[in-house]
From TrEMBL:
Signal peptide: 1-23
Record has Protease as a keyword: yes
InterPro entries for this protein: Peptidase_M1_aminopeptidases, Peptidase_M1_dom, Peptidase_M4/M1_CTD_sf
Keywords on record: Aminopeptidase, Hydrolase, Protease, Signal
The protein's name in its UniProt record: Aminopeptidase
Source superkingdom: Bacteria
GO MF annotation: an example: aminopeptidase activity
Span of domain Peptidase M1 membrane alanine aminopeptidase: 368-570
Organism (species): Sphingobacterium pedocola
Transmembrane segments: none
Length: 780
């Protein structure tokens, strides 16, 4: 046994596991290598002079602009909204426009609205009168009533209304670089949003006979004309939200004199509409360190008992916003404080408006949550640019520039549950966060809900976790999306699905993209690379119109991480993550001559271990005993596997030339583990392997998703460990949204079902398992 023989043997054995992997891979590669790692190609739009291949706006990028001068009045007796507006539209495109498209979103409530007819309906054996009444057509008179459309000179313009869209035909095309001024007079009946649904309208409080008006999507507003799709004139049906144009607004809001108004923009005439005491409090709030009540609870309660016969006009101006909304009521408390730090080069006012029933929660939390949200979002995206940010308690959740409507009311005794508190904080963060997506980073919500809801929900998760340690976030952590992703394929759609066609809207448009981004940040890219790229996207597309391709490209361009496989799987597909640890084989060497010969002996005896040999050997031994005892002694003493002095010298010479690490291998101090994995779910992801050692320590290896690029179904991986492994688990921190955790450990560690866990809990309490645990489980 020469030195070269030892070197050959150790080289062969060291390569054995790796060679086994390579030998197995080609067997199935022809049938299971798909396109999960191919570039997105035609799945996204081609780059051009308007949008670059890097994901940034191109050298010829353009977008339209629309400025508004609006006079609006609330008729509090009849719940009517009356308005007159002058629109100045700037054609910054390279195209002449022969007509303009405007949105009339309130027409979704019209008696003949399309969205009232295209949804499925069915009957049950038992139904209430209220349920059946919904099937009976009724003339309620909702929708935008256009009274006049004229140009700047007063000449009538031809227009056509198609449900929620209105086309204005121009006498001569609007040339590139030109502007067009026109005027519209209109009114609409404000809907009861509590009874009839909708994102805006009024809520009536019977106890004090007062109204809370949350006015949004209320004026004829310009549709988007863009480089990537022309006019965005897809109908508003209540599901897909908005695609809007940036511009400057001046809005005069006339309401009963005892109403309090909160709005997009900055009020230009607080001195005229506030009492001297309220004006003094407003000025004091500019320097206060805590939220200060501008309109107090006592003042709101007094106003609720009277109804003013006079009117006041509140004037607001807003620069570079895409929309305008406001709240008006006499039953509002208003508090405010300045955000003095955390927003680069800006100190916006954080403010809240809320009724007495929300006072216990909103007075304590709302404005502070608004300020916290502005700080966290400014850190991860782009500094908040606007002068104010408002949270309004309105028993719903909806967002507009600088103002949002949220929920969070105490019970009649002024108390509230933890669920209500955290739900309120979460919805305030979410709706205030929409100031960034899509009010600043102005994506097309009508087409891609996830670009505002998903991205916003992701940053909401970051803000929630920074608000409070172990905040009970509903969305963000990977394992929370697993139940949705394990649904049958016919109940799932890709994230890249139009809003109107999504069945599971919340999981698809909010939770799944938020989870995907969190996985990118924590597992695929790492926080440093992700945060830089995400912030770069927000910076590039602030006050512009991004598309999904711009987001995908920017995230790769700014990080040098190829993510096409990730976008394919998470955004364009419906596969789930289910990586199974199928088998573990361990190898350990010990090449000292004695051990090697002992191993050879065992292998030799195993090779000859059969019934015929055992019987022949017994006969042979009897023969030797009969012939000569000395022969028997010689036979028993001879060992063909004994290490000779020459072999020992050759090994010592061989061993002396090894490196310290090679000596560890030869001495058997390093164990090689060959792990076999299956991709049962179809969604390729990194493999996170946790090693639990007998000494109580742990270690995690992160195998990049690229391990699946040549075989998307099954892979093997060899690991070298210096400690003795007790058991192995993959995805120990539930980072990948794996839908079946029962196949994640070796040896297998099966999870108990919820029912089994309940039985265990009952037994630990000393209660009878036979006391109908199912009933208790259902009512907890």
């Amino acid at each position: 046994m020469s030195y070269s023989f030892f070197r050959y043997i150790i080289s062969f054995c060291l390569m054995g596991s790796a060679g086994f992997i390579n030998a197995q891979t080609p067997l199935n590669s022809g049938s299971n290598h798909g396109n999960k790692f191919e570039q997105l190609g035609t799945l996204i739009t081609d780059p051009n002079i308007f949008r670059t291949a890097s994901g940034a706006p191109g050298s010829m990028y353009w977008q339209q602009k629309a400025d508004y001068l609006i006079d609006v009045e609330i008729d509090d007796e009849n719940q009517l909204l009356k308005g007159s507006e002058t629109v100045t539209y700037f054609n910054n495109s390279p195209d002449p426009l022969s007509y303009l498209w405007l949105q009339l979103d309130d027409n979704e409530h019209s008696d003949n609205a399309e969205n009232k007819r295209f949804d499925e309906s069915s009957l049950r054996a038992k139904m209430s009168v209220e349920e059946l009444n919904k099937f009976v057509p009724a003339e309620k008179g909702y929708g935008v009533n256009i009274k006049k459309v004229v140009d700047a000179s007063g000449k009538a313009l031809l227009y056509t209304i198609n449900y929620t869209m209105m086309r204005i035909d121009l006498a001569t095309p609007l040339k590139p670089g030109a502007k067009f001024v026109f005027k519209i007079d209109w009114d609409l009946k404000i809907n009861n949003r509590i009874k009839e649904g909708g994102r805006a309208g009024y809520e009536y409080f019977a106890k004090d006979a007062n109204y809370l008006y949350t006015i949004a999507q209320w004026y004829p507003r310009m549709a988007v004309y863009s480089d990537f799709q022309g006019w965005q004139n897809k109908q508003f049906t209540g599901r897909g939200e908005f695609a809007l144009v940036f511009g400057d607004y001046k809005v005069n809001i006339t309401v009963p004199a005892d109403h309090v108004v909160g709005s997009t923009g900055e009020c230009q005439n607080y001195g005229e509409v506030l009492s001297p005491q309220q004006l003094a409090r407003w000025k004091q709030s500019q320097v206060a360190d805590e939220p200060l009540e501008i309109v107090t609870l006592e003042e709101a309660k007094v106003a609720m008992t009277k109804k003013s016969e006079t009117k006041k006009t509140w004037t607001y101006e807003a620069k570079n916003v895409r929309d305008f909304a406001f709240v008006s009521s006499r039953r509002l408390v208003w508090d405010a404080m300045k955000v003095k730090e955390g927003v680069e080069n800006n100190q916006p006012m954080a403010m809240s408006y809320y009724g007495p029933e929300a006072y216990p929660l909103y007075r304590r939390y709302s404005t502070k949550v608004v300020a916290h949200t502005l700080k966290v979002y400014s850190k991860y995206t782009t500094p908040y640019p606007y002068p104010v940010a408002i949270s309004v308690e309105a028993a719903n959740g909806m967002e507009y520039p600088m103002i949002c409507f949220n929920y969070g009311r105490a019970d009649e005794y002024g108390t509230y549950s933890e669920a209500t508190k955290y739900g309120m904080i979460g919805v305030i963060i979410h709706e205030v966060g929409h100031n960034f997506f899509p009010m600043i980073v102005n994506s097309d919500e009508r087409q891609w809900t996830w670009m505002d809801e998903g991205l916003n929900t992701f940053v909401q998760y970051l803000a929630e976790q920074e608000w409070e340690k172990d905040y009970p976030s509903r969305r963000g952590p990977a394992h929370k999306i697993a139940d949705y992703m394990k649904l049958p394929k016919d109940q799932l759609e890709p994230i890249m699905t139009n809003s109107e066609n999504i069945v599971q809207f919340g999981p698809n448009a909010y939770a799944k993209p938020a989870t995907a981004l969190n996985i990118l940040r924590e597992t695929v890219m790492g926080r440093e690379l992700f945060d830089f790229a995400f912030k770069e996207y927000a910076k590039r597309w602030s006050f512009k119109h991004p598309t999904p391709a711009d987001f995908f490209r920017t995230m790769e361009d700014a990080s040098a991480v190829d993510l096409d496989w990730f976008w394919r799987g998470w955004f364009f597909g419906t596969d789930a993550v289910d990586i199974s640890l199928d088998n573990v084989v361990s190898y350990r060497m010990n090449f000292h001559p004695e051990s090697l010969q002992q191993q050879n002996k065992l292998e030799y005896e195993e090779e000859l271990n059969n019934i015929s040999r055992q019987r022949n050997l017994a006969q042979h031994m009897e023969y030797l005993v009969d012939k000569d005892t000395s022969l028997l002694d010689f036979y028993n003493k001879w060992d063909r596997f004994e290490v000779t002095p020459k072999q020992k010298r050759e090994f010592d010479d061989f061993y002396s030339k090894l490196s310290s690490q090679e000596k560890e291998i030869v001495d058997g101090k390093i164990t090689f583990y060959e792990l076999s994995f299956s991709n049962n779910g179809g969604l390729v992801m990194p493999i996170l392997v946790e090693w639990n050692y007998e000494d109580g320590t742990k270690e995690i290896d992160n195998v990049p998703a690229y391990i699946w690029r040549k075989n998307e179904n099954q892979v093997q991986k060899v690991f070298a460990k210096r400690k003795v492994v007790k058991f192995i688990r993959i995805d120990p921190y539930r980072e990948t949204a794996d839908i079946d955790e029962n196949n994640n450990a070796w040896p297998r560690q099966y999870q108990s079902s919820k029912f089994e866990l309940f039985r265990q809990q009952q037994s630990t309490r000393g209660e009878s398992v036979g006391a109908n645990p199912m009933r208790e489980a259902q009512t907890r």
